[in-house]
């Protein structure tokens, strides 16, 4: 396991709780605002705006409370294990490639997108060892399995791209 | 009205023993053990990913397989905990304490065997509990109307919040977010859009299966990617025969851990990750030689493994009797039942007895299958855990995408999984509990329906939840658990950090 050097100590549990409490309070406000535009009659026994109002208010209040509580807290504080710089880049690359993959499925079809994505991510996560061959192999096998097992055999209606319907 | 009879159970066995269902139970046990062995994927995400794909099967076979995946996964987590000190699930952490020590002393075989035997004994004993408890509770639940169900789910959510660590406010927030996410889309009653911010895509609503795939599978991958884990360990040769003396030494531990695991497993929020620690601790207290714990005491392996499987079976009692899942994995199973139009609860016992009893009977058989499969295959499972993460991670993502997409064949569900993957990652970093969010998103629809129906009965007065005795008891227990949590937090004044709440 291991990992890289020290995590970014910028934020401790206390400051993070203050910030996330405020963020959640804002989220509560957003829900409350969005709830005002819900249409529907008041003749219902459970008016359609009641639940969103209730939940929005709860999130708003609980968020504020969390902030205030952490603000007033003066005890020992712990650091949050944010990723190191390298760790952050790894997470970002993994996530962005996943997002690209999801977009690519509709554009070039599931089998090809899968092969490219898997090959790329295996190569990226293993790049210190330079296992290019394994990366390509895993990618190709994944693409083939997706096509023959999931699309042809299980008949899941994924976009197939140039491989035809 | 009879909800239990030996005929039902025997019929259940004859259904469960048909070659087809036997095959799916075996497949489920194998897949489950695989899921349990592989780090980075646990029972909840495993079932969530596979759920949409199993729709090709008839409901009974599908649920038999899903249940087998669940208890198989709970079993599989122990293998790697013992052999390579990598607990596949949070619930296997106490197993690793003494199990890995035993392995280092060259006693991996007895450790693995005792965990298989203990899982089998505790699993079977608590299935007997399930067989007789669930119908009794279901009969009691026949008297439930919508207010009782609403109160019951309310209690389930509050217990999950108050038991999932010291993070009460965070638990409340996580619950609300789960509920809010499920509100997005169409109002089931009026069909009007709500919380869609004008986006047409959001009209389809957020499906809880993609939420779960995101929160568990994607989040776990992101966390592991960050750590740059590679998992390169060498296994030793494993011989697997325990001595009779070992087994005799563990009988007490097996029985005690069954009791602890089963009865705590009836409570919402008491995940195996909790009960295994309780059982381990109890065993250490009653032991004549507590100093051996942590240094390779075989009871230290038997107790958490027994509790693990007992909790798994125990959780099926409220699921079948009330339709109340006690943890994320059971919540996903509940989702599976709902996908097949089966609403767990007393009516299921009444209307589909063949189904319920076939599933229960299949669990007895599944326990035998696990024991038979796993004793000889232990070496193979241990090696599978050594698949390097750079290969395993992308494949888990691939399966998550396939799973999320095949829920409704919409790319939208994949995006939801992605977004909740990030949300789960941030929640874990900030110490927010994940279990309440999962439970809330699964229960949301039923909560809303039962609330609506209750208010119809009472003509709009919420007093209905406090004037009917059973509902009142549930509501009071719910409020009490919250009040107790608040009091504890005010007293300690410490910052809120959720327990490391993993799967199950």
Can you walk me through this structure?
The complex is a heterodimer of chains A (165) and B (504). Chain A has two domains: 13-72; 85-163, no CATH class. Chain A has helices at 13-36, 50-72, 85-108, 110-125, 132-153. Chain A is built from five helices and no strands. Chain A is mostly helical. Chain A starts with 12 loop residues before the first helix and ends in a 12-residue tail after the last helix. Chain B is mainly alpha-helical. Chain B has one domain. Helices cover 72% and strands 1% of the residues of chain B. Chain B has 20 helices and two strands. In chain B, strands 1-2 form a two-stranded antiparallel sheet. Residues 232-237 of chain B have low confidence and may be disordered. The interface between A and B is large, with 72 and 64 residues.
Quick synopsis:
The complex is a heterodimer of chains A (165) and B (504). With 165 residues, chain A is mainly alpha-helical.
Secondary-structure map:
The complex is a heterodimer of chains A (165) and B (504).
Chain A: H1 13-36, H2 50-72, H3 85-108, H4 110-125, H5 132-153
Chain B: H1 6-16, H2 19-37, H3 43-50, H4 59-83, H5 93-104, H6 108-141, H7 146-163, H8 168-183, E1 185-186, E2 193-194, H9 208-227, H10 244-265, H11 272-286, H12 299-322, H13 328-339, H14 346-351, H15 353-384, H16 389-408, H17 411-430, H18 435-457, H19 464-467, H20 469-492
Antiparallel strand pairs in B: 1-2
Helix pairs in contact in B: 1-15, 2-4, 2-15, 3-4, 3-9, 3-13, 3-16, 4-5, 4-6, 4-12, 4-13, 4-15, 5-6, 5-12, 6-10, 6-12, 6-15, 7-8, 7-18, 7-20, 8-18, 9-16, 9-17, 10-11, 10-12, 11-12, 13-18, 16-17
